[in-house]
Amino acid sequence: MSGNSDEATAPGADWDALAASFDDEPDHGLRDPEVRRAWAARLASWLPALPGDVLDLGCGTGSLSLLAAEQGHRVTGVDLSPAMVELARTKLAGRDAVFLTGDAAAPPVGEQRFDAVLVRHVLWTLPDPGRALRHWRQLLRPGGRLVLVEGVWGSVSPVGIPADRVTALLGPLAGQARVERLSDDASLWGREVADERYAVVATYG
């Protein structure tokens, strides 16, 4: 999902073709030290304080996976694009991380359970986000958390999913959800943004 407000990438995009240039976006590649620090600080506040198992769905090239691994977590990343998965494996070579090619809505993790499920800019692309959230909730250990980074991008023909819709979909799952607004933190995006960007952290048990 492109961070640019005027070029949100629609579902059905050829992610293998986009993989080589994916990290050029400031919030994708995290090559700018300030952007990287901003995401690392947010991630540390969203993920469990103690090292645990983190499932990064729609992991792309693994930039958030890398931050989570640097914070001591064991990471499993899933992406539909084999090219993205290959880049993520290279980026996290030598770390406690496994990358799988598969569908974020139904990740191929078998009976494994996680302390956190991290999903950035994926939920809005799914045909049935409520069903995906219910499935992701089942992948959590007791006391686990869903970390959802989403938004509504663009002004002419906006795409995305508003925060209130996400919290409504989470309602039946009986967790404690909080919304953190991200639009006003330019350091996360490498520039000022005017659209709706946010994180929802939902904890269970």
TrEMBL record:
GO BP terms in the entry: methylation
Pfam families: Methyltransf_11
CDD domains assigned to the protein according to its UniProt record, in alphabetical order: AdoMet_MTases
Domain Methyltransferase type: 55-148
Alphabetical UniProt keywords: Methyltransferase, S-adenosyl-L-methionine, Transferase
Stretches that traverse the bilayer: none
Protein name: Class I SAM-dependent methyltransferase
GO MF annotation list: S-adenosylmethionine-dependent methyltransferase activity
Species of provenance: Streptomyces rubrogriseus
